[in-house]
Design goal:
homodimer; about 350 residues
C-alpha cells in the first residue's frame, strides 16, 4: 500500500513537472466517504416501484402518495415539521428524507424497520398517514390492468402481494442516492471543489466531534444516539425514540442519527422539526451533544460546509400511472367512516 | 385549395403505383381534428412555470401544489370527485384536467377565468384550496434565492409579482398538450390506428349527436352547454354553472363542455364527479343531452372509442425546486388560525 502511494506521488509529480494543467487528484482519508451512484440491478422493478411511489391509490383517501411526504422535488422530504396525514392528521414525527435512506442502519427514527422494504409497508397502513390496509392497497392494485401486467413482467406472476409492492418500492428507493456533492469531489481530491470557508467549516465539524455520529458514506444514518447527550433536549414532542422498539430504558431518547447529505434541502430539522434553519440546528447540536457554543463565525462556517453536501438529485421522468378500471374503488376522502 | 388537394391525391396515387409499402395517408374530414405538439416559445419560462406548478410553498399549509389536484401522473387530474383542499376541505367542484386546458374557451367549469394565466391565480388564493394569498405567495418566493435568480433570467428583473408567477405557470400549462392519440392517427389517415369496434363507436358518437358539443381539436372545451338539456340532471351538488359569472338566468346550469381527450384517465366525470366510469357517463349523457338510451353494445363501442383519445402524456423530468432560505416562512399546516 505504502509503495503504491509512493508510486502514485511520483506519478503526480511527473504530471506536474510535465506542466499539465490537471489538478493533482488524490483521494482524501477522512471520516466521511464519497457516495457512489446507484447500481440498478432490475430496471423494470425500479420503474414499477417508481410508479407505486407516486400512486395515491395506495392511500385510503386516494390523495396521499409516498411522494407526498418524501417529495423528490424537495430533497425527499416535505419540509414540514410534522407531515400532513390522512384527513389532515398531524404526523407523529418529522418525515426523514428518502434520499440515501438505503444507507441507513435501519428505517424510521427509532429504527423499527430493518430495511426499506419493511419500512415501505408502514405508512400505507398507518391510520395517521396513508390510512389504508395492506389488503385494501393490494386489492386496489389488482384491479388495475396496467399494474397486473407490470407485476407479471417483473415478478413472473400476476398476483400482486404486499411483499411484491414493498419490494418494488424498496428497489426504487435504493436508486435514490445523491452522488457528486461538491464535498465528495473535494474528498476525491479536487481542492477547488469547496471554498476556504467551507473547508474551514468541515475541519471544525470534524475536529469538534460532530463526526463522532455524522460519519461514513451517509454522514450519519449508521447509529442510534441520544438526543440531548450533555444537556437534555427540551421539546413538547412525545416521541421516545428507540426505547419503543427495544423496551430498554437505556434507549430512551435514542434516535437514529440522520444523514446530513442534502441537509440544505431537508429543513426543518430534528425528529420534532423544531430547528427551522441549519444555523439553529448546528447551534443546538453543538450545545447539547458537544457542550460547545459555536461562535457566529464558526456556525456560519459549519453551515457553509453542510451546504456542500447537496448531491445530484435523482433525475427521472415523472411517471405516468396506469389508469384505474371500472372495478377499481373510487375513494372518497370525505366519506363518513364507521 | 381544391387544386392542391387534387395534386396531393395524384401524388398519393403515384406513390401507390410505385409499389411503395406506405399506407395511403389522407387526412379525414371530421368534426374532430388532431392535436398538434406544443410549440415552446420560451423554454426558460416553461421551466420556471414547471417548478412553480410543483411547489407546495404556494399554499398556506406548505402541503398543496398545483400538481396535487392536477396530477400529471394521472391525466392532469386527481381522480377524486371532489379535491382535497387546505385542511382537508372538500373542493367545490371536480378538478378539471390541466391537459390541453390551453385549448379551452375559458377556464374553470363556469368559465370565470378568461385564460390559463388568470386561472392560475385562483386556487392559490382560494381559502378552500391552497388558501394562501397572492401577497403571501409572492413574498415567500421572493425569499428563495433560486427563484429570484430564475425570475431575473426569465423576466429580466428580480422582482417577483403574481403577474409573473401566473404567466410562468400558464407558459408551462400551455405545453401540456397530448398529441398522437390513436384517434388522431386515424384522423390523419392511418386506417389501422383504431379497431373496428372503436371506429363503430366513433361513428355512433358522431352520428348520434355527441359531436354537437364535443368537437374541435379538444373534443370539447369550446362552448358552454346546459347540463341536463332534455332531462334535468339530478344532483345534490350546489354548483349553478355559468350564471355565477354572467348573472343571467339563461346560464343556470350551463357548464363548459369538458375536453374528452385523455378521458380514460380523468375519472370520475361531470362537474360533481358523480359518474365513476365512462360507461355511466356515456349512459347519462345519452339520456339527458340526446334523449337516447344507448344499448349495452352501443355504450361499449362508444367507451372503446373514447379510450382512443388518450394521447402522449407530457414527458419531463420531475423538477427539483430551489431550497428555501432562512428567511422563507416555515409553514405549519396545523397551526391555529385567527
Amino acid at each position: 500500500m505504502r509503495k503504491q502511494t509512493r508510486i502514485s506521488v511520483l506519478a503526480v509529480a511527473a504530471v506536474l513537472i510535465a506542466g499539465c494543467a490537471t489538478v493533482a487528484s488524490t483521494a482524501r482519508q477522512e471520516p466521511i466517504q464519497p457516495i457512489e451512484p446507484a447500481k440498478v440491478a432490475n430496471p423494470a422493478m425500479v420503474e414499477l416501484g417508481k410508479k407505486l411511489f407516486f400512486d395515491t391509490r395506495l392511500s385510503r383517501s386516494g390523495g396521499i402518495s409516498c411522494n407526498f411526504c418524501h417529495n423528490l422535488s424537495t430533497g425527499g422530504s416535505d419540509n414540514l415539521a410534522a407531515s400532513i396525514g390522512d384527513r389532515w392528521q398531524k404526523g407523529g414525527i418529522n418525515s426523514p428524507t428518502v434520499l440515501n435512506a438505503t444507507l441507513n442502519i435501519a428505517q424510521f427514527w427509532d429504527g423499527r424497520a430493518k430495511d426499506l422494504k419493511e419500512q415501505a409497508g408502514g405508512p400505507i397502513a398507518n391510520p395517521a398517514e396513508m390510512a389504508s390496509t395492506h389488503v385494501a392497497a393490494v386489492s386496489t392494485l389488482q384491479t388495475i390492468p396496467g399494474y397486473v401486467a407490470e407485476f407479471k413482467q417483473v415478478f413472473g406472476a400476476e398476483q400482486i402481494t404486499i411483499d411484491r409492492v414493498t419490494q418494488a418500492l424498496a428497489a426504487f428507493e435504493e436508486t435514490l442516492v445523491t452522488p457528486n456533492a461538491r464535498f465528495d469531489k473535494w474528498l476525491k481530491g479536487d481542492d477547488n471543489a469547496i471554498t476556504e470557508q467551507e473547508q474551514r467549516g468541515y475541519i471544525l465539524f470534524r475536529d469538534s466531534g460532530c463526526v463522532a455520529c455524522h460519519n461514513g458514506v451517509a454522514i450519519g444514518g449508521n447509529s442510534f444516539q441520544k438526543m440531548g447527550l450533555l444537556q437534555p433536549y427540551k421539546t413538547a414532542h412525545t416521541a421516545q425514540g428507540r426505547i419503543d422498539v427495544t423496551k430498554k430504558d437505556q434507549d430512551r431518547f435514542m434516535f437514529k442519527v440522520p444523514t446530513l447529505r442534502n441537509v440544505e434541502l431537508t429543513y426543518p430539522y430534528f425528529h420534532d422539526g423544531a430547528a427551522s434553519t441549519l444555523a439553529q440546528a448546528v447551534d443546538t447540536m453543538g450545545k447539547l451533544q458537544l457542550g460547545r457554543t459555536f461562535t457566529t463565525q464558526e456556525n456560519t462556517d459549519i453551515v457553509a460546509f453542510l451546504k456542500t453536501l447537496t448531491g445530484d438529485q435523482p433525475s427521472f421522468a415523472l411517471p405516468h400511472l396506469p389508469p384505474s378500471s371500472d372495478k377499481t374503488p373510487r375513494p372518497d376522502p370525505f366519506a363518513k367512516r364507521k
